[in-house]
């Protein structure tokens, strides 16, 4: 089942409307700190300054934070459906993942890296041919410094991946996932320019790093419920991504949950 009747464009697509709204909030916060420092001195002003900056820094590392733009982290409604999302491909795992999804009659969205898609365009086309979705996951996946990218580099990462995927599939993605789930003040502007919605998750097992499959599956299954957005990965060095996906699909079958691609026809 590829469609999701409980979603509409209004509930699924959350394109930033005011990418730099945070600037006004930041200016107001610093004015308030200056006034406090002037009247009460450094003993109050310095802590207030640190807190005012933390308010704008911490959300960068919180995947579901909305300070720098809207994010979809849970499907609306209570239908027995979940959204499987698979990051970091295409990879050597992709063909086996597609076979496994077919075996369980499940659909997923693959958030792919543009440069990797350029190297293996046939895998991206096969994902689409089998009825799955394609999302933008940056062009080079700069996970160490993504949080600190400036506006020009951020626009390049998102825009180049968007153009690459549109060229391969014939259709520009409408969904985007930040590298390692992080964001920063300069993500929303290119998302608005390309009509992209930022997608986070509500269930994860940390399968992108070294992991023990059973424990990873248990962490995901703990939050596996109607409307869940499940974060999975492919091509990880530990080699367990297929086993983890199989465990999640088995849990979905037991719970009567269907893997869907929201908004698909």
Notes on the protein architecture:
By secondary structure, this protein is of the alpha/beta class. It folds into two domains: 9-14 and 69-259, TIM Barrel (Alpha-Beta Barrel), CATH 3.20.20; 21-61. Helix content is 44%, strand content 12%. The strands form two sheets. Strands 1, 2, 3, 6, 7 and 8 form a six-stranded parallel beta sheet that branches. It has a two-stranded parallel ribbon with strand order 4-5. The relative contact order is 0.19. GO terms for molecular function: hydrolase activity, acting on carbon-nitrogen (but not peptide) bonds. Residues 80-265 form the NodB homology domain. Pfam families: Polysacc_deac_1. Its EC number is 3.-.-.-.
What is the level 1 CATH name of the largest domain? Alpha Beta
Order of helices and strands: HHHEHEHHEHEHEEHEHE
Q: What's the gyration radius in Å?
A: 20 Å
Roughly what fraction of the amino acids lie in strands? 5-15%
Kindly state the mean pLDDT as a whole number?
93
Give the termini separation: 10 Å
Shape: globular
What is the number of domains?
Answer: 2
The number of distinct helices, counting runs of at least 4 residues, comes to 10
Can you summarize this structure?
It contains 10 helices and 8 strands. It is of the alpha/beta class.
Essential attributes:
265 residues; alpha/beta; TIM Barrel; 2 domains; 6-stranded parallel β-sheet; 10 helices; 8 strands; 44% helix; globular; disordered N terminus; transmembrane; Polysaccharide deacetylase family protein; Glyco_hydro/deAcase_b/a-brl
């Amino acid at each position: 089942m590829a469609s999701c009747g409980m979603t509409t464009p209004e509930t699924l697509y959350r394109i930033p409307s005011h990418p730099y709204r945070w600037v006004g909030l930041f200016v107001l916060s610093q004015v308030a700190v200056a006034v406090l420092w002037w009247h009460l001195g450094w003993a109050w002003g310095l802590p207030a300054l640190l807190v005012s900056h933390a308010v704008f820094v911490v959300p960068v590392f919180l995947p579901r934070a909305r300070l720098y733009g809207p994010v979809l982290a849970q499907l609306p409604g209570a239908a027995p459906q979940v959204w499987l999302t698979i990051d970091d491909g295409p990879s050597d795992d992709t063909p086996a993942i597609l076979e496994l999804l077919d075996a369980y009659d499940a659909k997923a969205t693959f958030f792919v890296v543009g440069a990797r898609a350029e190297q293996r365009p046939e895998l991206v086309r096969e994902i689409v041919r089998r009825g799955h979705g394609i999302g933008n996951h940056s062009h080079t996946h700069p996970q160490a410094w993504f949080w600190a990218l400036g506006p020009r580099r951020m626009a390049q990462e998102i825009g180049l991946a968007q153009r690459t995927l549109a060229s391969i599939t014939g259709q520009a993605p409408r969904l985007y996932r930040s590298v390692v789930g992080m964001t920063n003040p300069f993500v929303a502007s290119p998302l608005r320019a390309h009509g992209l919605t930022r997608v986070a998750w509500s269930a994860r097992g940390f399968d992108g790093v070294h992991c023990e499959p059973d424990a990873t599956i248990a962490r995901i299954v703990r939050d596996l419920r109607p409307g869940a957005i499940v974060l999975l990965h492919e091509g990880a060095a530990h080699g367990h991504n297929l086993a983890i996906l199989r465990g999640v699909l088995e849990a979905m079958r037991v719970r009567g949950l269907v893997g869907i691609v929201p908004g698909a026809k």
